[in-house]
Write a structure and sequence with these properties.
Elements: E1 2-6, H1 10-17, E2 24-26, H2 29-37, H3 44-55, E3 61-64, H4 70-83, E4 87-92, H5 95-107, E5 111-116, H6 119-127, E6 132-135, H7 137-142, H8 147-160, E7 166-169, H9 175-183, E8 188-191, H10 193-196, H11 203-221
Parallel strand pairs: 1-2, 1-8, 2-3, 3-4, 4-5, 5-6, 6-7, 7-8
Helix pairs in contact: 4-5
Bound molecules: erythose-4-phosphate (E4P).
Length: 222
């Protein structure tokens, strides 16, 4: 399973990329606005700079279109795709978005369909030629339903057909979402920084290291 970081913070991308396990990054307007509050991003131009810095660190960076109409989305898709070959254009799961996905697939522009909440939406995006679809598991959990059930439905359907579209588990809230995503065979998980930092940790690793260190001290003294 590929591991992406869900962030617009370049320092966080650089930190996790240095671990040698990071396959990509997903951004969205909310994440970009959050960084802007800290003074690091304040305009579409600085967003472009952020995306370019991330493209230098990882091979796949999702940049989301902000237009709501097909023409505007297609214009932004062409613009973003020219920024860097690692850019994947993120398009919302709307009818305008579907038309944009088809347009992009015909032009060879890689896409990630965002805001997927049902199996029919997943199938439509795949048929329109999306490179990636992003079902939002956390937001489904937030309304009292089970987000991972949707991933199960999608992976079950994907096993029947020859969709080349990758399934990216988005809106991850905790490591259990990542565990379930891997067990269901999802292709990608995009993970917030705070959750990503929990993945290498296990209390038995810590106590194990302490015991090895303590015993090695005894060897040194003997
Ligand atoms: C990823 O591409 C999505 O934009 C992201 O995972 C949304 O997560 P949220 O529900 O925590 O905002």
């Amino acid at each position: 399973m590929k591991l992406f970081l869900d962030t617009a913070n370049v320092e966080h991308v650089a930190e996790v990329a240095a671990w040698g396990v990071l396959d990509g990054v997903t951004t969205n307007p909310t994440l970009v606005a959050k960084e802007g509050k800290d003074g690091s991003q304040s305009s579409p131009q600085t967003f472009k700079e952020t995306v370019l810095k991330m493209c230098a660190l990882v091979p796949c960076v999702s940049a989301q279109v902000t237009a709501a109409d097909t023409e505007g989305m297609q214009k932004q898709a062409i613009e973003y795709s020219k920024w860097h070959k690692h850019v994947v254009v993120k398009v919302p799961m709307t009818i305008e978005g579907l038309k944009t996905l088809k347009f992009c697939s015909q032009k060879g522009i890689k896409t990630n369909t965002t805001l997927v909440f049902s199996l029919p939406q997943a199938i439509l995006a795949a048929k329109a030629g999306a490179s990636i679809i992003s079902p939002f598991v956390g937001r489904i959990d937030d309304i009292g339903e089970n987000g991972m059930e949707l991933i199960g439905q999608i992976m079950e359907a994907w096993a029947h057909y020859k969709f080349s579209t990758e399934v990216l588990v988005a809106s991850v809230r905790h490591p259990d979402h990542v565990i379930e995503a891997a067990r269901l065979g999802a292709h990608i998980s995009t993970i917030p920084y705070e959750v990503f930092k929990k993945l290498p940790l296990h209390p038995l690793t810590d106590t194990g290291i302490k015991r090895f260190m303590d015993d090695w001290e005894k060897v040194k003294k003997s």
